[in-house]
Amino acid sequence: MAAPSQPDPFLEPDDAIDHIHGPASAPVTVVEYGDFECPSCFQAYGALKVMLPHFGRQLRFVFRHFPLREVHPHAELAAEAAEAAGAQHKFWPMYELLFTNQHHLKDKHLLDYAAQVGLDMARYQNEMSDHVYLQRVQEHVQSGRHLGVRSTPAFYVNGVFCDVSFGLQHLHEAIDKALPTPGPA
C-alpha cells in the first residue's frame, strides 16, 4: 500500500509572505492564485464573499498573486499596489477595492484606492515608484508555476487542486468534503 502523498510545501501558508483570512486552526485551507484584472477571478471573489462567512472559522483562505500580464496589462501593478497596502496592514480593504473596480486599474486609480483605504501616501508612492513589492508578486507567480498553475483563478483545497472551470460550486463542494465529519453525539 502506498503512503499518502504529502501536500506540496509550496501550498503551506506563510504568514510572512501570504495574505491569510481565517484561523490557522481551521481544518480547511483554500489557497487561491488570482489576478485582479481577471473576470473569472472577479466571479470567484463574489463567491468567496459568500463562502467565507458560511464556513466561518472552519476555513482559512490564502490569496496569492498570479497576474497574467499577457492578457491583463494592469494586473501586475495592481498586485504590487495590494502588496504595498499589505505592508501597511490594509491588504484586504485594497483587495476589495481592486476587485470591485476591476476595470479601473491604471496608476491614477490605484493611487485613489490607496488614499481610500487610508495608506501613508508618501510611503505608498515611493514604494510603487521603486517597485518594492514586484519581487514578492513574482515569487507568488513562481510558486504557482511550480504547482502547474496556468490560468486564474486556481484553487487548492487542503493541498489538492480544485477545478472550478465548470463553476465555483465545485469549490464549495470540495470544501464540504474536506471538512471533518462530526462524531456521534
Question: How would you portray this structure in words?
Answer:
This protein is an alpha+beta fold and 185 residues long. Strands 1-3-2-4-5 form a five-stranded mixed beta sheet. A hairpin with a 2-residue loop joins strand 4 and strand 5. The longest helix has 17 residues. It is globular.
| Largest sheet descriptor | 5 strands, mixed
Which structural class do the helices and strands define? Answer: alpha+beta
Q: Helix fraction?
A: 40-55%
Low-confidence stretches: none
Instruction: Give a count of the beta strands, DSSP E runs of length 2 or more.
Output: 5
* Integer-rounded radius of gyration: 17 Å
Order of helices and strands: EEHEHHHHHEEH
| Distance between the ends | 33 Å
Mean pLDDT: 93
Strand content: 5-15%
Tally of individual helices: 7
Overall form:
globular
The neighbouring-strand order within the major sheet is 1-3-2-4-5
Q: Could you name the key traits of this structure?
A:
185 residues, alpha+beta, 5 strands, 13% strand, globular
Short description:
This protein has 185 residues and is an alpha+beta fold. The protein has helices spanning 39-55, 75-87, 91-100, 107-116, 121-129, 134-147, 169-178; strands spanning 19-21, 28-34, 59-65, 154-157, 160-162. It is globular, with a radius of gyration of 17 Å.
